[in-house]
Amino acid sequence: MAGAGAVPRRGSRRAAGRYADPVSETVELHVVSDSTGETAAKLANAVVDQFPDLSLEIVRHPRIMSEDDVQLSAARARGRRAVVMYTLVDQGYREAMRTLCKRYKLHYCDLLGHPIDAVARVSGLSARMEPGARPVLDSAYFKRIAAIEFAVRFDDGVAPDALGEADIVLVGVSRSSKTPLSIYLGYLGYKTANVPIVRGVDPPPALFSLDPTKIVGVTIDAEALQTIRSARTRSMRGPKRYAELTEIYEELELAEAVHRRLGCPVIEVSNLAIEETAHRIIRLVEGRKLEARAAGA
């Protein structure tokens, strides 16, 4: 079994109630899996988000390969303020974990066993019981790889003549999340290019001849952008003007003018996660395409 890792997620106040011991105030979420543990880890993070004032740590135990590994992971949680969350496909491992958690008086959640059993009962079919099933190398997989390569290749306005090949084109000022959005949209299978708006540099003419349904503007709060650019300036020892508010306001106004000229929808990204922003972009682009088709029918 690979070594377990703890990811601290700390709140601002001590937990109240019968566990309010200053020596052991942290609650541990032990994520146990016979694969990478990503499924359980995502759920654990969702749980953590519901307790902002509680000190929590996510302790991961990936690649469970034997009952000895099950025993070791349960032993690490024994005697702790802990909840064991496990995604174990093997029924024997699940039963062993359940028995150990009861023996050690640990709270536990079988995240995979119950859904598998329920679907099997409803469908009448047996699950294949293969931990960490590998993704199929089908056309969709290779489409995603090609889209990611496209995003890297045509990042930051490189080769504007290739903009027509993109499924989505993002337009916005520097450090407004265009690149990570392009990569993530690529992962979702959308070939995405992005065009930066820079003072003193005209946007490429090709941008204004594109199918407008594929263009989405991105913008960001000026102060949030200043924080991002200031960190960038310190790490890269860049010019201070790049992070000055007056410069930022002027760039944002220029970007707004370009967005109006393009007639494109604009998403404000300041308080949005990349995943949420990407899905909003997809909904906008797909919706506008449908509207264009309906209008042309």
Structure description:
- The chain has helices spanning about 40-50, 65-75, 90-105, 115-125, 140-155, 180-185, 220-235, 245-260, 275-295; strands spanning about 5-10, 25-35, 55-60, 80-85, 105-110, 170-175, 190-195, 215-220, 265-270.
- It is an alpha/beta fold and about 300 residues long.
- The strands form two sheets. Strands 1-3-2-4-5 form a five-stranded mixed beta sheet, with helices on both faces. Strands 7-6-8-9 form a four-stranded parallel beta sheet.
- Strand 4, helix 3 (about 90-105) and strand 5 form a beta-alpha-beta unit.
- Helix 5 (about 140-155) runs antiparallel to helix 6 and helix 6 (about 180-185) crosses helix 9 (about 275-295).
- It is elongated and about 70 Å long.
List the helices and strands and how they pair.
Layout: E1 5-9, E2 27-33, H1 38-49, E3 56-61, H2 67-77, E4 82-87, H3 91-103, E5 107-110, H4 113-123, H5 139-153, E6 168-173, H6 178-187, E7 192-197, E8 215-219, H7 222-236, H8 245-262, E9 266-268, H9 274-296
Parallel strand pairs: 2-3, 2-4, 4-5, 6-7, 6-8, 8-9
Antiparallel strand pairs: 1-3
Helix pairs in contact: 2-3, 5-6, 6-9, 7-8
